[in-house]
Amino acid sequence: MTQCNKVILYAEDDEDDAFLFQHAFKQAGISHRLVVVPNGKTAIEYLSGDGAYADRVQHPLPSLVLMDLKMPGISGLEVLKWIRTSPSLSTLLVVMVTSSNQDTDIHRAYLQGANGYLVKPGNIDAIVTMARSIKDYWLMQNRVTGWVEVKMRGQS
What we know:
Rossmann fold; 5-stranded parallel sheet; about 15% strand
């Protein structure tokens, strides 16, 4: 997968949060393209390659999914469950990024198969710090198996 095709999918229904994260990702020097979708239904459409997202050259599978927990319609947990039961996507990295710090939400996310759980900070400096942490760990240090990388390359 070439660098220009590296994508992070961010499912977030709050436009202000989406804008702040886009800004923070630029500040953190993340070269992956951040694709923001406004809800769980659209996240599933993107990941399925349905409708407007059918062209995998323009809309490649993401190397990382950031998922808000509580979205109207299809929740982040429901999208996560769908990902984990979809054979071609089941090993996709999914990190919940939410304002909920409730133990029950954290526990449910990990039970559903989340790879990580981050609580959204309250100010832009802390969001930039979080973006740098995402870059350092999930995009640079973390390793996926060769099988996942080959499978993702085959999608583009």
